[in-house]
Amino acid sequence: RKVFFDTHALVCLLEENGFTTQQSEVIVSALVKIMNTNLDMIYKDMVTKVQQEIALQQVMSHIGGVKKDMIILEKSEFSTLRSENEKIKLELQQIKKQVMDEITKVRADNKLNLNLEKSRVKELHAQQDRALTQTDRKIDTEVADLKTMLETHKLDNIKYLAG
C-alpha cells in the first residue's frame, strides 16, 4: 500500500506540539491502519477498469439479446395482427355480402309489392271505369226511356186534344 502523506513529517509535527516520539509513532501508525482499513472497504466497493469493461460488455450483450427478443416479438405481434386483420377483412366481406343480399331481397320485395299495388290500382280503376260506363249506359237508357215516354205522353195529349 502506498501512503499518500509523509508519515515522518507528521511524527515530527506531533513531537513539536508536545508528544513523545513513541506517542507520535503510535498515533501515525493508528492513522495508517485506519486509512488502510478505509481503503480496503472502499476497494471492496470499487471495480477495476477491466471488471468495468467486462460488466459493460455483459450489459451490452444483454441489451442486444433484449433487442433481438423485442424484434422477434414485434415480428410475431405484427404477424398476429396481420392474421387478425385478414380475419376481420374476411368477416367484413361476408357481412358486406350478407347486407348486399338483404338489400337485394328488400328491393325485390319492394318491387313486387309496388307491382302488386299498381295492379290493384289498375284493377280498381278498371272496375270504376266499368261501373261508370254501366252507370252512363243506365243513365242513357233511362233518358231514352224518359224521352220515349215523354213522346208517348205528348202523342196521347195530342190525341186527346185533337179528339
TrEMBL record:
UniProt subcellular location: Mitochondrion membrane
Chief site of localization: mitochondrion
Keywords: Coiled coil, Membrane, Mitochondrion, Transmembrane, Transmembrane helix
Pfam families reported in the protein's UniProt record: CCDC90-like (PF07798)
Signal peptide: none
Domain of life: Eukaryota
UniProt record, GO biological process: calcium import into the mitochondrion; positive regulation of mitochondrial calcium ion concentration
Gene Ontology cellular component terms for the protein in this record: mitochondrial inner membrane
Family according to the record: Belongs to the CCDC90 family.
Name this protein carries in UniProt: MCUR1 regulator
Source organism per UniProt: Pluvianellus socialis (Magellanic plover)
Lineage of the species this protein comes from: Eukaryota, Metazoa, Chordata, Craniata, Vertebrata
Gene symbol of the encoding locus: Mcur1
